[in-house]
Amino acid sequence: MSGYLHYLKVCNAYNPADYRPWSISGTVIGQVRHAVAERLTDLGFKDEGGGLTLEPASFEELSETLAKATDGLRTAGLAAPPRGELYPLLTHPDSAPLAALDRGAATEFGILNRGFHLNGIVRRVDGTFMWVARRARNKTTYPGKLDNMVAGGHPLGISPFDNLLKECHEEAGIPPEIAATARPTGTISYQMGVPSGLRRHMFYTYDLELDPSFVPQPIDGEVESFELMPIGQVMEIVESDPDAFKYNCNLAIIDFLVRHGFIAPDHPDYFEIASGLRHPLF
Fold first, then answer.
1. 231, 237 in Cβ contact below 8 A?
2. Confidence (pLDDT) at 3
3. Any bridge partners for residue 24, and if so which?
4. How buried is 107 (Cβ within 10 angstroms: 0-12 exposed, 13-18 middle, 19+ buried)?
5. In whole angstroms, what is the distance from residue 203 CA to residue 29 CA?
6. Which of 68, 83, 245, 276 lies 20 to 30 Å from 265 when distance is taken between CA atoms?
7. Are residues 66 and 101 in contact, defined by beta-carbon separation less than 8 angstroms?
8. Chain segment 62-116, per-residue pLDDT in tens
9. What's the whole-model pTM score?
10. Backbone CA torsion sign across 247, 249, 254, 255
11. Please, which contacts does 175-184 make with residues 24 or more away whose CB atoms are closer than 8 Å?
């Protein structure tokens, strides 16, 4: 197995037998581990044999039910601390939100989780270069790991474009007139079983070509520093050091390498690499 395929295997490691689906009005919204499912039956969810259900209700009522259920899971040691950021409860990436859920419980409830990853690119006469971020050492998740130039979750109440502008400014000091030139290039999706629940992720991908004179600056403390690396060096890190980058950042880099021909059709794992970046979520 090539180094690239390693990340596809890790991000799509998921055993359906470890989870129970939960639904609203017959539509599956998420999947939860069995221990969580048992606790949720005391927190407003009904056990229908094949899975759990929540009664349809207004946005506010469902949000309140989920907030109380999340508190109950935390009391039982089955949910992470609150993150203070609300994510939408979705039946599809383009659907209207049914409710709001604290980001810290997204994995425990196994809901569809949106976000974006942006590749910062510089073209020079001596080749293609990529801006690589290093996450702050005091971050609660993946401290000190390498990261894409800009990446972020997609909270409730903001459009993908406005979220892009916001995160570009906060993480890398990119002015809105420059961030607005980022080119949307598609999506990546994966379904990853972890001890706390299910990471059911879909993120938009962007390429932002930058003038060689532009140097990103950390603003909000999420990033410790930035380094401009030759694309060959980035490829070598991804292929040979599986612990260097935050796990899903590798997928965004691999997607870039495929789209721009750095991973070409004569690569022995080309089909598996290209097709494995978009795992079905429904």
1. no
2. 87
3. 27, 54
4. buried
5. 18
6. 245
7. yes
8. 999 999 999 999 999 999 999 999 999 999 999 999 999 999 999 999 999 999 9
9. 0.94
10. positive
11. 178/208, 178/210, 178/214, 179/208, 181/208, 181/209, 182/118, 182/206, 182/207, 182/208, 183/207, 183/208, 183/209
127 Rama sector, left if φ>0, alpha if ψ -120 to 50, beta otherwise: left
Residue 126, Cα to own-chain centre: how many angstroms? 33
| Strand-pair category, 86-88 with 46-47 | unpaired
| H-run or E-run covering 219 | none
Cα–Cα distance, 21 to 32 (Å, whole number): 6
| CB-based contact 276:251 (threshold 8 Å) | no
Model confidence over 146-188: pLDDT tens digits?
999 999 999 999 999 999 999 999 999 999 999 999 999 999 9
